Structure formats: C-alpha cells, structure tokens
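4.2 Preliminary Data

To establish feasibility before requesting continued support, the project team ran the inverse folding procedure on a target of 233 residues. The structure was first converted into the token representation described in Section 3, and no sequence information of any kind was made available to the design step. The complete token record follows.
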C-alpha cells in the first residue's frame, strides 16, 4: 500500500508519516497542496516549504517518499533538483488544484471538481521529458491518462510510473486491465519487447540545451500551424 499525505504545515506531517509506516505502508506520497494566496509570500518561501516538509518526513520514516508537485513554480526544473537533493525518492508530476467557479445566476462561488483529460497531459509529459536522466529520483506521471496511447506517450517521455484516477472513475476498476492490454498490443505492434526499451525514447537528450530544445519545438509548432488548413497567421 502506498499512502498519500495531504497538507501544508511541515510540523504536522511527521506524526502522520510515522503512523502510516506503522500501519504497514510500503511508501508515502507527499501531496503538497499549497496555493499561496498571500501576495507577501515569496516564491522562495513556497519552495522552502516543500523542501522542509520532505526533509521532516524523510527524517521520521524509513519508507521511500515521493513528492507530488504542482506545475506552478517559476522554475519547475530547479524545484525538482532541490527536492532531488533533499532526498525525494520520486517526483509525481503534477497535482491538480481544485478551482472553484462562479455561478452568475445564484451570484455565488461554487466548488468544481473536473476529471482530467488527455489534453492536460502535455504539460507533465513535457517536464518528464526534460527531467529524464537528470535526477536520482524516479519520475511518476499523473494527469490525463484515458487510454493506452496516453500510457505509451508518458513512457516515451521517460516516466518510470504512470498513474491514473480519472479514467478509473469514468470507466471503473476494470479499465486498468484495458489500459495494460492496450499498451501490450501497442508495444508488440511497434516491436518493443520490454517497457525499458520504450522509456525515455523521446526524452530530451542528455547534454543538449533543454531551453533551446523547447524553443525549437515551439517554432516547429508555429510552422506546422502556418502550413495547416487554417493558412498563415
């Protein structure tokens, strides 16, 4: 069993973490659900909170500890390196903050829980491809897994683990077997014998300029759009 801890107060995590370990969990995921609404809180303070939570939990248990991150950092790669240096055994990319909506008829703010879609996988997949091979921590993909093709894309980007919740809520637990069977069929069709042969095949190459690589991808996307049915912009 992998247990998930959610919260933002560093001092409150260690007792829960020890209790989870004593209950028999084999690993812990720290889901640092923190949106700083105070404009006086600096970005570095937010980053340090994540690192401090990880360090306290790592010091309290002997289990592997993963950190589930949001994409809302000024430098996601540098944050990943900080957590890697602080001992994170894995990084989960990314969590999704609940975003309330406005009801214009009742003139009220209402909760809104939306399941993820495959389109949302582009951002975590981009960062997994950028971080692959550059950290000691494993990389876990989360968000936007609906079908076997989404599994394959995450593995090609470099994910060690692919996670899904929304698709199982939509289709039920049996959908997990459909995902795995579909991935196996895709691997056979493409001539892959093992997942290891797939993992990281399309990651950003080590030693390359990651910023230039992403810029080149952006330019290529613009050129493709110009050449599409919509014509030049």
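Position-by-position output of the design step:
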């Amino acid at each position: 069993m992998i247990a998930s801890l959610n919260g933002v107060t560093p001092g409150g995590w260690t007792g829960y973490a020890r209790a989870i370990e004593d209950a028999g969990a084999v690993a812990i995921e720290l889901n640092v659900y923190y949106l700083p609404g105070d404009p006086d809180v600096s970005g570095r303070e937010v980053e340090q909170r994540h690192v401090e939570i990880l360090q306290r939990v790592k010091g309290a248990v002997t289990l592997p500890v993963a950190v589930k991150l949001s994409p809302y950092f000024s430098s996601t790669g540098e944050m990943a390196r900080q957590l890697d240096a602080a001992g994170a055994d894995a990084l989960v990319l990314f969590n999704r903050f609940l975003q309330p909506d406005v009801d214009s008829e009742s003139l009220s703010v209402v909760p809104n829980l939306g399941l993820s879609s495959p389109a949302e996988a582009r951002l975590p997949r981009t960062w997994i491809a950028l971080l692959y091979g550059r950290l000691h921590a494993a990389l876990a993909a989360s968000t936007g897994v609906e079908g076997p093709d989404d599994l394959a894309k995450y593995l090609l980007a470099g994910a060690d683990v692919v996670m899904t919740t929304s698709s199982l809520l939509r289709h039920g637990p049996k959908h997990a077997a459909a995902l795995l069977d579909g991935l196996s069929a895709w691997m056979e069709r493409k001539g892959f014998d093992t997942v290891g042969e797939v993992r990281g095949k399309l990651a950003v190459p080590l030693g390359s300029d990651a910023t230039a690589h992403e810029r080149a991808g952006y330019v290529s996307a613009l050129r493709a759009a110009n050449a599409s049915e919509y014509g030049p912009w």
